Amino acid sequence: MNDPGFGVYVHWPFCAAKCPYCDFNSHVRHQPVDQPRFVQAFERELATMRERTGPRTVSSIFIGGGTPSLMLPGTVEAVLAAVARNWDVPDGIEITLEANPSSVEAGRFRGYRAAGVNRVSLGVQALNDADLRFLGRLHDVEQSLHAIGLAREIFPRLSFDLIYARPGQTPDAWAAELEQAISHAADHLSLYQLTIEEGTRFHALYAAKKFQIPDADHAADLYTVTQEVTAARGLPAYEISNHAQPGAESRHNLIYWRYGEYVGVGPGAHGRFMENGRRIVTFTEKNPENWLDLVESRGHGVIGGEVLTREEEADEFLLMGLRLTEGIDLARYEQLSGRSLSGRRIAILQEEGLVSPIGNSRLRATQQGMIVLDALVADLAR
Amino acid sequence: MTTPISHIRNFSIVAHIDHGKSTLADRLIQMTGALDAREMAGKEQVLDNMDIERERGITIKAQTVRLNYTAKNGEDYILNLIDTPGHVDFAYEVSRSLAACEGSLLVVDASQGVEAQTLANVYQAIDNNHEIVVVLNKIDLPAAEPERVKEQIEEVIGLDASDAVMISAKTGIGIEDVLEAIVARLPAPRVGDATKPLKAMLVDSWYDAYLGVIVLVRVIDGVLKKGQTIRMMGTGARYPVERTGFFTPKMIQADEIGPGEFGFITASIKEVADTRVGDTITEDRKPTAEALPGFKPAQPVVFCGLFPVDAADFEDLRAAVGKLRLNDASFSYEMETSAALGFGFRCGFLGLLHLEIIQERLEREFDLDLIATAPSVVYRMNLLDGTQKELHNPADMPDVMKITSIEEPWIRATILTPDEYLGSILKLCQDRRGVQVDLSYVGKRAMLVYDLPLNEVVFDFYDRLKSISKGYASFDYHLTDYKEGDLVKMSILVNDEPVDALSMLVHRMAAEKRGRTMCEKLKELIPQHMFKIPIQAAIGGRIIARETISALRKDVTAKCYGGDVTRKRKLLEKQKEGKKRMRQFGKVDIPQEAFIQALKMGDN
Predict the structure, then answer these.
(1) Is the ipTM of this complex over 0.85?
(2) Which one of B496, B556, B574, B577 would you mutate to disrupt binding with A, by most A Cβ within 10 Å of its Cβ?
(3) What pTM was computed for the model?
(4) In which band, very low, low, confident or very high, does the pLDDT at B604 lie, cut at 50, 70 and 90?
(5) DSSP secondary structure, A69-102, as one string
């Protein structure tokens, strides 16, 4: 496998409203956000990171959130320019920005494009209004379709997200919704099963039995349907929840799953990169205002991190890499952990149809294995 | 100067758990000034040294306390209190302690009355020709019914309770009356001549990290002195005596121990196993002509395998069992290899409580994680070739074709219970193949005597009895004899592979039910895997029960990007930790708790 690459992640921590399922680092502010101040802070933190990583060639930039489509085009432009001042940014690398259909304006989209964004990831989430309301989204289906159309017109590449395994969703209804989504012809789809995360509004509602989500059997069926429909329509899974036309995979997310290096800037961003020959972890202050203060006073908002041990690196490599249809490079696992995966465990899992070798050098989870990947990884990593 | 024999009293306290033996002992110690208030402060049950003893309110090792008491007649007396283990598992230790003294205090809770355990111990005291002073404790409780309990004692035990001493060990009422009764009503040692050759009984011994083996002795004749060379008459071993002294309960060194007295010696003895309880100690140069009637060594009656959860801890386990054995000669062990569990030890115990205590001490004092296999009794296999083989481990069972018959140990159990639980307890005993010997009433309480196969008791009989009777029934037993039984070996197969550690001998009639319960339990205890797992119980090649653990249907994190890796890794580390506490059988991981929990059968 080629070098998995070096990515830059920028976190924009604000949303117009907090979605009830979301446990990401997002904050709602009723005062306008002082974007120039944030630009300066991003610039400073990027420069600090550059001191740590040294000169590198960037293979992808991702602006996520929160809702980055609340950023002014000028803000995006300044951030991308700052990245390019610090590292080598070749022409044509993937530059993604996440957007919400509720905050889309044609003018702003053109501005992002002009700033260098060449891929948009839209939070469509559902293609029926009732479910959108349940998910706490601020847009309806019509707005989503408008945003999809606009994005396709303006950006070379487009992905959108859907959340499935919603309360009461049948495999048939989901298959139909998915067919419709594919007909709007993005080259990339992220299809996530709804999960109830701690600290979210859904968590409290679910605990109070205000709604139910599909049980494991039903959820597994929905997953299987998803694989079938997307494969038939030319968007096979390349990761647990991600589907693309061959060649249209997210370069940025592949860096994560192939266990490459990335720096993370902005509130609550994580990074993992080599420093003095060891892989280190960084994470920054989550509260936006506190992060600003930290960056302004000392040049960065990093409040924690660790130097990973070989075993930790190997564990992370395994749990990220097996999410990919391409699987993992066994030699790299050995190189990281200093030991090879148990041949006996692999043989057992293979016999049960959960993993499959690719030639002599790679191992991947089968579709059946993907559905129980957390258990599978725990079994292999012991 | 040794004390004249006429001014020595050696006594033990017989009581049921919770009837106040330790509290009374504390009071006697306090009243005679053996420990001052500061030394007593914050301590309860000062005689129970081990954490486990104190936590469980039981005594494992015998101990003595020498009390100086000036009686109302103005004379000074030495009162030696011998604290004996109260539990049936340690009946042997009780017997030797009782044999070494002349009288007992029978302590009965005035609100509870006589319990099964009281009976067993008091009969032993009577067998040892003890004078017995009846003490009614907790008379200050509103629920106390001293008159009724006195009647009960006379009726059930046949002791005159008219002059019972009424006390409250907790508040201190009547403690002096107890001391006076000891002096006036218990006999002085019956023999004892300081001029005769030394003759002393080895009552108990234990290992002390600083002093080596400490031997508790009762001198019959002669004087035991520091510097003497002693000889153990049973083993022939000779040792120069290094230290002599008394427990007050503090260890106080003294130059000699006179006839009739209890004391301790140290003599660079390496292991407790070198000292045989009941052995006669004499002076090497001037030995006594005849030894005391010997005691037989304790025989383990319950066996189980102990294995380290992490195979790498085997050497630690070996060192730990060796250390425990130093201090407890009744615990035996030999190496065992299990296909399922790897290297471990087959251990023998005096009973289930003994097993639990040893297991707990290994885990607590030596920081070991252990898997214990099904407790098993000692079966006798009569083989076609006319020989008899003792079986300590179901995994070692000879080929059925070579066995003519199997004998199993039986016990006689005495159960005392409030009437309302009688029906359920009768059913429990019946279900466990019990044969009723007697059913009578002691006041409002029923007294049941049952003969039961020990193999039916080692599982969870006691737990069941306690839960059926909401804790009110009391239980005691002693081994009687071996009887032939229609026993079969039941194997448990997990994913078609036999798990040797779960195999057991069961009565043919009970096999199917036990097999079904076992499979159901394992189904709950073994986590779902990525594939389905059949669990079967089998006798020979015949499957008698079956359950299936369905495959895990979905277990995957939908969303996982850069920042989620740390959280996921931490989760994975926990899962890996969890896997370490499991054992692999073929493709299946079985948690260690499963081995313990699966054996708690239940009787529903």
Answers:
(1) yes
(2) B556
(3) 0.70
(4) very low
(5) GGS-HHHHHHHHHHHHHHSB--TT-EEEEEE-GG
Phi, psi of B411 (to 5 degrees): -125, 160
| B345 SS3 class | strand
The total number of residues shown for chain A amounts to 382
B496 touches chain A (CB under 8 A): no
Among the partner-chain residues A223, A281, A315, the one whose CB lies closest to the CB of B572 is A315
Q: How far is CA B217 from the centre of its chain?
A: 22
Which residue in chain A is spatially nearest to B569 when comparing CA positions?
A316
Of B370, B394, B390, the residue nearest B379 (C-alpha): B390
Residues of B in contact with A269 (CB under 8 A): 563
> 3-class SS at A305?
strand
The A-side interface with B (CB below 8 A) comprises 9, 192-193, 195, 216-217, 219-220, 223, 240-241, 253, 256, 262, 264, 268-272, 281, 283, 312, 315-316, 319-320, 323, 348-349, 352, 354, 369-379, 381-382
Annotated binding-site ranges of B for GTP: 18-23, 137-140
Element (H, E) at A201: helix A201-207
Residue B40 has pLDDT above 70, yes or no: no
Report the distance separating Cα A205 and Cα A321, nearest Å: 34
Question: Are the C-beta atoms of B502 and B557 separated by less than 8 Å?
Answer: no
- In chain A the domains, ranked by start, together with CATH numbers, are 6-256 (3.20.20.70), 311-381 (1.10.10)
Cα dihedral: A254, A257, A260, A262 (round 10): 80
Q: Is residue B86's pLDDT more than 70?
A: no
**Disruptive mutation site among A221, A285, A336, A352 for chain B (greatest number of B CBs within 10 Å):** A352
| Site of tokens 């205890």 | B525
Beta carbons within 10 angstroms of residue B586's beta carbon: 13
Superfamily of segment(s) B489-600:
Elongation factor 4, C-terminal domain (3.30.70.2570)
Tell me the residue ranges of DSSP E strands in B233-353.
238-240, 243-247, 251-253, 256-257, 262-266, 280-283, 302-308, 332-338, 342-349
**Average pLDDT over every residue of A206-222:** 94
CA distance A78 to chain B (A): 23
φ, ψ for residue B385, nearest 5 deg:
-80, 10
Is B374 strand, coil or helix?
Answer: coil
The CATH architecture assigned to B199-283 reads Beta Barrel (2.40)
Q: Determine contact: B38 vs chain A, CB below 8 A.
A: no
Same topology for domains B199-283 and B489-600, yes or no?
Answer: no
Instruction: Give me B496's structure tokens.
Output: 């078609």
